[in-house]
Every structure is written in structure tokens, then in C-alpha cells.
Amino acid sequence: MKYTKLPPKFIKVVVFLSTIGLIIEAYDFFSIGIISTAIWPYVFFKGVSSSAVAFSIFAYATILIGRPVGGAIFGHFGDKIGRKFSMFWSLFLSGIAMLLVALIPPIGIIAILLIAILRFAQGLGLGGDGGSSIVLSFEYANKGDKTGYFMSFPMAAAILGILLGLVGVILSENLESRIFLLSYGWRILIGIGSIALMVSAYLRMKVVESLDFKELSREGNVDPSPIKSAFKICWKKIILLTLGMAYFPVMLNFVLYPYSIELYTKLGFVEKQVMMVFLVGSILAFAFTLLGGYLGDKYGWKKVVLISAIGSLVTLPILLLHNLLGLIPLYVLSSLGWGAMGMYASEFIVKLRNTSAGTVFGLIGLFPAVLLLIVLPLSITLYGIVGSFMPIMAISEAITVLSIVSIFTLMRVNKNEGGIS
């Protein structure tokens, strides 16, 4: 349904409004990741212990478990009622859950358990928002001449959110505001994010519904049970796309954040120096994410992802040199593929696109979730921060190889079907 041409300015507005939630999600993931380990153990427990830190990390990470469920559920409603409906309510749910986290009283482990429930609900919303935002953006960007380039902006939102989190951490350290963060500062940081999400939800009411969905609805071709049909018809591509895209969240949300920050600090680098290198790396990664979308238009998005995955496989061992600048080539090359991945929604038929793409968006978050909740704590307990690098590298390399194989397989499937490369 690409025959309707839209002006680039209109597409830009829709893409911008569709990606605000993704920026806040990335900001939330990075900043609350730090808050959960550095602040919550002091706020909700009498003393900082291993169990206090473990419970805090658990509460923080339940958002990742909620994402695939939310991607499928809100994707179902996006295919049945409309992308706009799904985008509004998913973001509104996330904003309310985030606001309630900011208001939780200091009542010990009960507070942490309540936060875990709210973070799960937030994950439901953000998982639904991510899939619906990417689908709506794609269905508008596909009415122009630079689909891949426009779709790199929603993907770059993740890097932009991390940039905001890094700037916030660096400013907090420079202002020596730890006492403020321990009292009300962390609540204000989360509260600002929640208000931003709800304002974004309101602004999205101004977005015009997807033209593809409107045509589908007008012709009476809306699937009566999208979630059932998606897993019956699209299951193979859901699996291949999930595995093919998995290497990037593993590199970003496991190897780079939070592990490498702790690793280089333990190796003797000053924390401020580490943060500055990540800041520079994030700026370059943002640029390379946009470049990935541009190259995807020229050469095919899966080819760019394949090059990115191979580049990640090759550059990850550079970290063995314990050179802080060795982080940058890994960060940049993995981000190149992330920019091209915005086109993955093109793999699904219109009437099942929101459910299928939303499920994939949620499922890729399970990889870092399992690694953060189980593998990383176990590895650090057994080998320490520095000693954990070899098993962490081996696991990350194995997942990257799996991504390369899956992309190759997907390219063969597309060749047989005559699909988009």
C-alpha cells in the first residue's frame, strides 16, 4: 500500500510524535538502572546488603518481562481497533505506572514488591508503545522516498535516551547532589519522565490514524483475532527477526550498560572518565544509527544488519585489551545495524503487522533481561567483575552468531518470497 505519496514534512511530524515514548523508555532504562542499585537500597532498606541490591535490581528489571506481553497484547488491539488507539493507551499506562513508582513511600520490601508490579505494568505499556510506534512510523514513512532513513529515527531514540541519562548522571556527579537524589531527586527524575509520557500520549491523539489500517478497515479486512492469527501465520518470521535483532540489545543493555561501566571502573579508570567515553560513544552511535537507515535504503536493511552483526562479533574481543577507547568501535558498529532494523515491520502483512512487530520488539528485550537477572549476578558472584568478562564475551558472541545465522536464513526466505531485503 505504498501508492499514496505524502510530503516529507508530514512524515517527519508523525515519526517524531511516534518516537517520544521510545526516548523516555531508553532514558528510564539507563537512569533507573543506576537509581535501582545506587539509591533504592538506601531508601527502602535499613542497610545496604547483597539482598537489598538484588531485590532492587529485580524490581527494576521486571519492566523487561512485561515488554513482550505488552507488545503482543497492544499489538493485537492495534491490528483490531487501530494503531492510534494502541499508542495512546500503552503510553498512558506507562506514564501512570511510572508516576506511582515516584510516589511509593519508604516501606521496605513491600515498596520494592509494589515497584516490581508497577515496573511490570510499565513494561506492558512500553512494549505495546514500541511496537505500535514503529508500525505507525513505518506505515507513514513507507509513503515517502526515504523509508529506511525515516525509520532510523525511532531506533535512534534509544541512543538519544541513553545520552540524556548520561548527561543527567554526569551533571549529578558534578553538582555533588547525592543527598538530594537520596531524598527527593530520584523521585523527581522518574516523575518528570512520567509526565513526559502522559503529555506524549495526549499529543498522539493529534496523530492521524495509519492510512494502511484505515484502508484495511474500510475494506472489511480487519482480522477478528490478530494475536491468534499472527502466531499461526507469522511465527517463523517472528522467531527469525527476534533472533536476528537480538545481538544489539545484548551489546547495548548487557555488555555496554551496565557491565562495561563497572568493568572499567574496577580496572582503575576514573568513573567520570568512563562516563565521558560513553558520552562520546553515544553521540557517534546516534549518528551511525541514522547512517544505518540511510544505507538500508540503498543496499537493503538486512544486508546492513548482517554487516553490523559481523562487525560486533569482530570488535567485541577488543575489550580484552582493557583499552577504554575499545568500547567505541563495538558501540558504533552495533548501532549501525540498529538503525537499519527500523524496517523490520515491512516483513509482516498489514492486518497482522502491529501484533507481529510488537511481539518481536518485546521479545528482543528478553535477552538482556535474562542476562541481567540471572547470568550477570551469577557470573560476578563466581568470578568477580573483571573475571566475568570471558564468560560474558562468550555468551554475547554466541548470541551474535545466532543473529548472523538468523539474518542469513531470513534473507533466503525473502528471496524465495520476493520480499523486501
Could you give a short description of this structure?
The chain has 421 residues and is mainly alpha-helical.
Spatial gap, N to C terminus = 17 Å
Count of domains: 1
Mean pLDDT: 87
Strand content: under 5%
Fold and architecture overview:
There is one protein chain. The chain is built from 17 helices and no strands. The two termini are 17 Å apart. The protein has one domain: Growth Hormone, Chain: A, CATH 1.20.1250. The chain is mostly helical and 421 residues long. It has helices at residues 8-38, 40-44, 50-80, 83-102, 109-141, 147-175, 178-204, 211-218, 226-233, 235-245, 247-266, 271-299, 301-315, 327-340, 353-363, 366-387, 389-417. The mean pLDDT is 87.
Topology:
Layout: H1 8-38, H2 40-44, H3 50-80, H4 83-102, H5 109-141, H6 147-175, H7 178-204, H8 211-218, H9 226-233, H10 235-245, H11 247-266, H12 271-299, H13 301-315, H14 327-340, H15 353-363, H16 366-387, H17 389-417
Helix pairs in contact: 1-3, 1-5, 1-6, 1-7, 3-4, 3-5, 3-15, 3-16, 4-5, 4-7, 5-6, 5-15, 6-12, 10-15, 10-17, 11-14, 11-16, 11-17, 12-13, 12-14, 13-14, 13-17, 16-17
Characteristic terms for this protein:
single chain; 421 residues; mainly alpha; Growth Hormone, Chain: A; 17 helices; globular
